[in-house]
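Protein: Cytochrome c heme-binding site
Species: Methanofervidicoccus abyssi
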Amino acid sequence: MKISPLQAGLFAGLSGAILQAVFKVTPPPAYGLCIACHTRDLINWIVNSIAGTTLGLAPVSKFFPVLTVVGIFLGALIGAVIHKDFKLRSTKNLGVSFILGFLVINFALLMGGCPIRMSLRTSYGDIFGIIGLLGLFIGVVIGSELYLKRNLKIA
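Structure follows.
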């Protein structure tokens, strides 16, 4: 059975709307589809549940975690396997990759770093949204050109 991107998008959008109506979930303004924020909320929700701490969460994640990151990861993995695009890759220096990933996620949290959130901020007339989008663009270009192309090798 083949599923087109249109069918997958319609299913995901309708499922989200139905779940939002059933569970009366309303995300905070400009929360969007933020991988950084949703990852933070998922990790904080797990730690709060296990250790009984009170780490900060968005209001939408207080009772049940937002599983956007898990869905995107599984969807990308399944899509790559189905279309025979899945390849294991390794870097020359795992420590540098880890530190760069750590910095990216932390700066994304400081800036509100997902492109959707920055676009929303820009549409509201926020100058920091524009600065954030430009910084994200420059960082992606530099990161892909200078780091990924030079350090990735197909395993």
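Remarks: The chain has a mean pLDDT of 80.
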